[in-house]
Specification:
12 helices; nine-stranded antiparallel sheet; Phenylpropionate dioxygenase-like ring-hydroxylating dioxygenase large terminal subunit; oxidoreductase; binds FE2/S2 (inorganic) cluster; ARHD_Rieske_2Fe_2S; Rng_hydr_dOase-A; binds fe (ii) ion; metal-binding; seven-stranded antiparallel sheet; 26% strand; alpha+beta
């Protein structure tokens, strides 16, 4: 059975009409009014990823980031609790922190020096006599966002009535647990990050992290630049066991290397890649063979991309975080991760950073090619906003897996259908 999607424009009176089961309107990338609605209906209601716990290693540590377009500071307060505070002074609205990350006792607004604690409480107001009888400090904390964590991933929401984070993540939790196994027996920590902007809509990026179909086309030069074992590992186009599951709530997981999905499931038959021979030798001086095998087998991460709607993907061996700036402007952060263990693992993390740079770095063989594709989608889609963007690949071969998740081949557009299903639900919520 086939559905004709060739000439059918996607229009309708409401935002929800612009998303169908097999196609979405091109204007989803170009319409500024839709973008404004997305900011209030999606980014001010959903749980948005803001940090990894390793970025806040002790009381007083903080990072600045955004929830949608709202600037926030994520802090660890004196009691060790992680807080997300709106980066906006309660006096006349100035931002109280402009540092990307650091350690502080609190935040003092540069305009009139109102000072706030790490928990957001207003502590001091200069020349307080003018406020006699008109100001209660306890009523003027920095606005606190609900903040919850799972598996080291910290999320915040502007919606006081949002469902609990664990409900929001649902069946994606198992995959977060699996992703963190790439610590090879140690917790995972952030090694570094780089940030870039592309002139396109945030959903083009969201789609890309669940787009297995583009891999051998766009990443031909990366495939040609790596050793044969790595190229073979990423040859999933005709592997029937490589699948994508729709996990519900807009989340999905694309398994490119199914043998690495659960790194604890290791029968010892898979040889370690020859490219890591030197590393194995170095580590073997201090670690036992089982520990060496565990960290080296996890060098490329878990071989799956877990897409969490709306703003973060746990992608193979890094986090990819998106921030919508305008309908045609998105900031992407690539956050490299590795095991947080004894100093002998420094060599592992150096090697992981080199692999990361090779694909994801600004001069890498992967991301710059992706970015060219995203720019072109934005330019092309502007040509005819009502023409459909197709998301129907593999819909006729999609089946429920043992857990009831719609599942199709890793090259199919199951993950995009999952994300747009959630988009439609949230955008249609009047
Ligand atoms: S705006 Fe912050 S102290 Fe005045
Ligand atoms: Fe790509």
């Amino acid at each position: 059975m086939s559905t004709d999607v060739t000439g059918a424009d996607v229009t309708g009176p409401t935002a929800a009409d612009l998303v169908r089961a097999d196609r979405v309107a091109g204007r989803l990338y170009t319409d500024p009014e839709l973008f404004e609605l997305e900011m209030t209906r999606i980014f001010e209601r959903a749980w948005v990823w803001v940090a990894h716990t390793s970025e806040l290693p002790g009381p007083g540590t903080f990072k600045s980031t955004h929830v949608g377009r709202q600037p926030v500071i994520v802090t660890r307060d004196r009691k060790g609790e992680i807080r997300t505070l709106l980066n906006r002074c309660r006096h006349r609205g100035a931002s109280v922190c402009e540092k990307p990350q650091g350690r502080a006792n609190g935040f003092t607004c540069p305009y009139h020096a109102w000072s706030y604690g790490l928990d957001g409480a207003l502590r001091g107001v200069p020349y307080p006599d003018g406020y006699e009888g008109v100001l209660e400090k306890r009523d003027l904390s920095l606005r606190r966002l609900r903040t919850e964590s799972y598996g080291g991933m910290v999320f915040a929401t502007l919606d006081p009535d949002a469902e609990p984070l664990e409900t929001f993540l649902g069946d994606a939790r198992l995959w977060i647990d699996r992703f963190m196994k790439q610590g090879g027996g140690y917790p995972v920590k952030v090694l570094g990050r780089h940030r870039f902007t592309f002139r396109g809509n945030w959903k083009i990026q969201l789609e890309n992290t669940t787009d297995g179909y583009h891999f051998p086309i766009v990443h031909r030069s990366w495939m040609a630049s790596v050793d044969a074992e790595t190229a073979d590992m990423m040859s999933f186009m005709t592997d029937p066991t490589a699948v994508t599951h729709d996990l519900g709530h807009g989340h999905s997981v694309m398994q490119m290397v199914p043998a690495h999905s659960d790194l604890d499931a290791d029968d010892g038959s898979e040889p370690l890649q020859a490219r890591f021979d030197g590393l194995v030798e170095e580590l073997s001086a201090t670690l036992d063979p089982a520990a060496v095998r565990k960290v080296v087998r996890a060098m490329h991460g878990t071989g799956f991309n877990l897409n969490l709607f709306p703003n973060v993907s746990l992608s193979a061996a890094f986090f990819r975080v998106l921030r919508p700036v305008a309908v045609d402007e998105t900031v992407i952060e690539h956050v490299a991760i590795g095991p947080d263990g004894p100093p002998e693992l420094d060599a592992v993390n150096r090697a992981r950073l080199r692999i990361h740079e090779h694909f994801q770095g600004p001069f890498g063989f992967g991301t710059p090619d992706d970015a060219e594709g995203w720019d072109r989608v934005q330019r092309g889609a502007a040509a005819a906003p009502d023409m459909p963007i197709l998301i129907n690949r593999g819909s006729a071969r999609e089946k429920a897996d043992a857990d009831g998740h719609p599942t199709a081949h890793v090259t199919d557009e199951t993950g995009m259908r999952a994300a747009y299903g959630r988009w439609k639900e949230m955008m249609g919520d009047d």
